[in-house]
Structures are given as structure tokens and as C-alpha cells.
Amino acid sequence: MIEISTGLLWSYGLLNYNFETAILFLWMTGILSIIAVIDLKYYIIPTSLIFLAFFGLLIYNLVYTSNLKDSIVGLLFGLSYLGGTAIITSKIFKKQTLGFGDILLIIILGTWLGLIKVAITIFFSATIALIVWIIMSFSRGFKINYKLPFGFYLSITSIIVYILKFEYNLFF
Q1: What does the alpha-carbon distance between residue 128 and residue 134 come to, in Å, rounded to a whole number?
Q2: Surface-to-core class of residue 154, CB atoms within 10 Å of its CB (0-12 exposed, 13-18 middle, 19+ buried)
Q3: Which of 42, 83, 123, 167 is deepest in the core (most CB within 10 A)?
Q4: Opening angle at CA 108, ends 105 and 36, nearest 5
Q5: What is the pLDDT along the chain (172 residues), one digit of tens a residue?
Q6: Could you tell me the residue range of the domain that residue 19 belongs to?
Q7: What is the Rg, in whole angstroms, of the alpha carbon atoms belonging to the chain?
Q8: Is position 87 within any domain?
């Protein structure tokens, strides 16, 4: 399943984007696919994969991008929104509600997607994760301590949001 979906994503990227954008798309979808599988199975997001994604984004933004401002704003929005959510929910529930890997992942996604697309990614990831949590609660009995691999939802949703090409000219 993983090999087929990765092959389809890479084929899509090579057929639908110019060379520079295709290379970044292949880089990011490859890393995000790995992150999704690892987080789904082990509930961790390896920092080495975050750094690898950041390295690719940094090179791309320094060499090719003309819209560095959108990447920076996306990074700051993702970090402040998810970081703020983590702080607030941790205070309310008296436990860690989001992992550090999720926070690092949203920084990478904000840099890759920009402001609007990362906001859409966060919204749909949280909505889908909440639906899954509700279904798990009904099927297994309600427990507030069910863990969900939020990095999985962020990774998959970000790829879908990128492919759907939400076009905007809101701020930039």
C-alpha cells in the first residue's frame, strides 16, 4: 500500500509540476509518507526526518522561491497556532496534549504550504482526528486518554491540500 501510494504521488508530481516544484514535491511527500507511517505505528516523529525536510525546504527557498514571505508567515502561523493550542490544552487537561514532533512538523508544513494552506491543513487534520477519536470512543468505550498520531493526520492532509492547489491571493 505504501509503495503504491508513493509511486502514485511521485508520478503525479512529475507529471503536474515544473522540474523545481516536482523535486520539492517528491522530497516532501517522500518524507511526509515516512513520518505518517512511523507516527501511526509508534506515536513518534523522528527529528532527523524533520531536519531532512527543513534542509530541502531551505535549499529550495534560497534557490528557487520568489515568495519567501509566505513561507515565513506560514511557519509562524503554524507554530503559533499549534504551539498555543498545545500550551492551552496542556493547562486545561494537566498533561501533554501534543508532542514536540507535531510542533516541529507544523513548522515544516507551514514553510512548505504557506499561511492559507497550513491553516486549511490544521483545520482538516484536527477535524478528521476528532471524528476518528469519537468513533474510537463509541466503539471502545469513552476514555479521554486515547492517543491519536496527529502527525499522521497532518502529513496526509498536507499532501492532499498541496495537490488540490488551493489558489489564493489574499495577502501576497
Answers
A1: 10
A2: buried
A3: 83
A4: 45
A5: 888 998 999 999 999 999 999 999 999 999 999 999 999 999 999 999 999 999 999 999 888 876 788 899 999 999 999 999 999 999 998 888 899 999 999 999 999 999 999 999 999 999 999 999 888 888 887 776 778 899 999 999 999 999 997 655 444 4
A6: 2-164
A7: 16
A8: yes
Write down the pTM of the prediction: 0.91
Structural domain tally of the chain? Answer: 1
For residue 169, is it within any domain? no
Cα pseudo-dihedral 75, 78, 82, 84, rounded to 10:
70
Neighbours of 51 (CB within 10 A): 12
Q: C-alpha cell of 35?
A: 513520518
